[in-house]
Amino acid sequence: MKKIILASLIYSAIYSPAPFAASRDEVMSLIDELSTSGQQKNSSPSVKTAPLTSTKGPLPVKLLSTTSTATTPVAVSSSTPLIPVKTTNVSRTVGYAPTKAMPVNGVVNMDKPATGSKLATLPGIDEYLKGGASPLSSQPITVAETPDVIEPVTKAITQPEPPKIAPQPIDTPVVADISSKKTLNDNDCLGVGQGKGNLSFYDVVVMAMCNDPKAKATWLNLQQYQIAKDSSYAGYMPTVDLNTNFGHRELTQTVDKKDYKTKTESWSNTLELSWLLFDFGQREASVDKAKSELIAVEFLSLSDLQEVVLDAAQRYFAVIASEAYLEAARDIEVIAYKSLQVTQGKREAGVGELADELQAKNAALSATNYRIKAEGEVRNSMGALASILGKDITKDISFQKGLSVPSQNALNNINQLIEKALNQHPQLLAAKEQITVSEKALSVAKRGFLPSVYFTSRWGNDRPKYGPGYDSDELYMGINVKVPLFSGFSQYNAVRSAQNRLEQTQNQFVQTKQSIALQVWQTYQRLSTAESNLKNMHDLVASSSRAYEIARGRYQSGVGSILELLNTQNDLSEAQINNVNTMVDWHLARLSLASSLGQLNVSTIKSSALN
């Protein structure tokens, strides 16, 4: 019974308001009395504790109560590191608002105490470390006497369960004629992103399309093939050449030591015309080949622009993810310093161990280190995104919203998605068009053995100025038939090369078809896995938060160990970080699935829930 009284007095001395607080002298007096009278067994049937040992499974913990007992499973693991440090470039968590209480000049100001409560001033933790500089000063840390439930834990528990989500199917057809139906034009890029305080996902994608050199290279390459197609019509036009010749001649002859000079000047003009009349379809095949090449490059350009959009999306979510990691790191740091305050409070009251306080301090310093690394990741991801947006990498970029999970319709059947991808994916359409290009090239090569018929005409004149000669004019018109007989087997080898190229493109089409089907399957499974994990991670965060709350209360009451407190604290940290990972993976899997279906472009982002 005296132990119960002692525990109550210790608890009231640390956490109770002033009117009910026991003095330290009373507590120490009772400790001395118990020491002289010997150890007594606890006779209260309402107080039961479980041994606090490190196990791999759940540990039942009996809570302190005056009427009944409650059993709550708390996972305790000794093999888990105190602070998980992850360096993945990803995002902002949803639903877990960061606690803004941060250590400043060695002082951590926690939640406000209840009205009339007394604040206990505890010595700084640096005095327990001998030698070496510490990020915390020796100023006192103020801690409220009433053990409040921390804000992030409460918000995590009360957070509504996320809905079952999946990407909205996008039925926008693939635009084949980019030259007349471009997704972006010069007017779209004028002033994009300027004067905006917060950028949306759509703004980021448009800025990337307008400023990323890879996107510009795609358009320049497309224009090159457009010029090549226009050039292919030259075979239907005549060729006209004008030749002009002006000559001046002086001849000196010596006869009997006398020089005789003769001067001659002439001016002649020749106009020649050649027009291909018939070549057994070689010109037509060349034009068709150029048209097919342009169509294939248009589809490849769509695929390349999808890569630009996906790259911008990945960098965008990397920034938001790094900010979410920073918020989680701040929450972890606040929780760690609250645990440190609990150990300092118990030690100040004379009932805590220095070893417990040092373990809690190590965890707090590790949390601070993790938070500093998270701040560095935010700056790195900001610079990576700014580099493709035409922004100054030394300045931060703000966005309209953080990481969220909008509710969507159910996923389509995987067979339907694969069929849709095989019907409209730009890479597959480009591979199919490449077969047509190879067929036309083979047709051109075979027609190289056939004769060609030309109409030729020539007009010329000659006007001598000095010397003998007469003015002359010439006009010629005729038909020229060119029959290839032998060219060193070059035409024969051209046919062989075109045939081999056709077989290569047919094989490439099969490979592309298999690759796209596999991409759709893998991204679909990745999205399904991430979708299923969302609810699981939500439950894990809530469970870990509750477990930490219980462990903190047990340790404050003197029935829990520092190992239990730090393990549950670590479990909560891991749950928060894994929750961020899951949300980022869901967003990236959604974008990857849209890309594997060939539907990731500016227009679909603007019109769909992707924005």
From TrEMBL:
Pfam family, one: OEP
GO cellular component: cell outer membrane; efflux pump complex
Gene3D superfamilies: Outer membrane efflux proteins (OEP)
Any one GO molecular function term: efflux transmembrane transporter activity
Keywords noted in UniProt: Cell outer membrane, Membrane, Signal, Transmembrane, Transmembrane beta strand, Transport
Main location: membrane
Region Disordered, residue ranges: 34-55
Signal peptide residue numbers: 1-21
Family, per entry: Belongs to the outer membrane factor (OMF) (TC 1.B.17) family.
Localization, UniProt: Cell outer membrane
Species: Limnobaculum parvum
Descriptive protein name: TolC family protein
